[in-house]
Amino acid sequence: MKTGFLWHEYFAWHSFGTVSGSIPAGGFVEPGAPFENEQTKRRLRNLLEVSGLLDDLSILPTRLATDEELLRVHTVDYLEKLKRLSNAGIGDAGRGALVGKGSFEIAQRAAGACIVAADAVYDRVVRNAYVLCRPPGHHAERDCGIGFCLLANASIATEHLRKVRGVKRIALVDWDVHHGNGAQSIFYDDPDVLTISIHQDRLFRSGSIEERGVGDGLGASLNIPLPAGSGHEAYVAAIERVVVPALTRFQPEMIIVPSGFDASVFDPLGRQMAGSETFRMMTRLLMTAADRLCEGRLMMTHEGGYSETYVPWCGLAVLEEMSGIKTEAQDPYLGWFGLIGGHELKPHENEVLIQAAALVDQIPRPGK
């Protein structure tokens, strides 16, 4: 089976007005490009084409998610607000979740693409799948958008699998540099959805190691807040020593990865030091776990990543690994990456992993 891939030109058309980075332009703020823009995604899609890998992927169709599908996660009031702002062509759907003309429909398509991918992976139509969608979704909560995210794409796909397809246990492994607060808040009291977030410590308003879930969901939220400056070895060790044991205990029927590339060494919004080979290795480890635990059922949804030049190489590495196909395209930044020190696992990073690993035994097991 091939790796599924989903992209639609409309994803590149999401535009939310005149800003500079993430701040509205005006006064002393000169207009400029927003951090979250179409270039990182379009350039990744283009690199897949020119490398030849796109020809070997299974291109899956996108569609709009229905209100019924969105309301499994979001509130009626929030969807109505999002529609009003989208029709007006300007506004903020929460905290930094900027909306432009038609943004709701594009966000609907992103959520719908994730549902299509989830079905295709679950039904074994494809080996695994990557959804290159925009706007991103991992910060969106039930009643508001946050930080460029309008709809909770991965969570919407999760609820589709549970409510429609009857999947009992799903794990979300978020490696965006910012905390995966959206899924954590949505499933915080749910023992059948394991949310794991590997992120830069204190880069976001939530994500401490003490946030572990409540009620029946106690233990099903697991945070790995790596210190700023964490490099290749820290990220790989987080997967090997915390994530894989957590998945093994939880026994998911499907693994969904909110895949942000803003933990890369060249990203303007993070202070981490991952490289394309870091993301390749993390993908390999999660695929091996998925093969052992859930017949390889793994899908990824595209989240953050704001380096136009480097996101494509990180994404190519992930999709090469997912597909098992190595192209002739070589990351031109690897030599530069190798000259930067600090990639070894440092004592203060190791301490975080020790603390997180100690929480694995408290993750709810099947039937408990």
What are the SSEs and their pairings?
Blueprint: E1 3-6, E2 19-20, E3 23-24, H1 39-51, E4 58-59, H2 67-70, H3 76-88, E5 90-92, E6 94-95, E7 98-100, H4 103-122, E8 128-131, E9 145-146, H5 153-163, E10 170-174, H6 181-186, E11 193-200, E12 221-226, H7 232-250, E13 254-259, H8 276-294, E14 298-302, H9 311-323, H10 334-339, H11 347-357
Parallel strand pairs: 1-4, 1-8, 6-9, 8-14, 10-11, 10-13, 11-12, 13-14
Antiparallel strand pairs: 2-3, 5-7
Report on the structure:
The longest helix is centred in the first third of the chain and has 20 residues, at 103-122. A hairpin with a 2-residue loop joins β2 and β3 (23-24). The strands form 4 sheets. This protein has an 8-stranded parallel beta sheet, with helices on both faces. A two-stranded antiparallel sheet has the order 2-3. A two-stranded antiparallel sheet has the order 5-7. The protein has helices at 39-51, 67-70, 76-88, 103-122, 153-163, 181-186, 232-250, 276-294, 311-323, 334-339, 347-357; strands spanning 3-6, 19-20, 23-24, 58-59, 90-92, 94-95, 98-100, 128-131, 145-146, 170-174, 193-200, 221-226, 254-259, 298-302. The mean pLDDT is 96. 37% of the residues lie in helices and 15% in strands. It has a single domain (3-362), classed as Arginase, Chain A. By secondary structure, the chain is of the alpha/beta class.
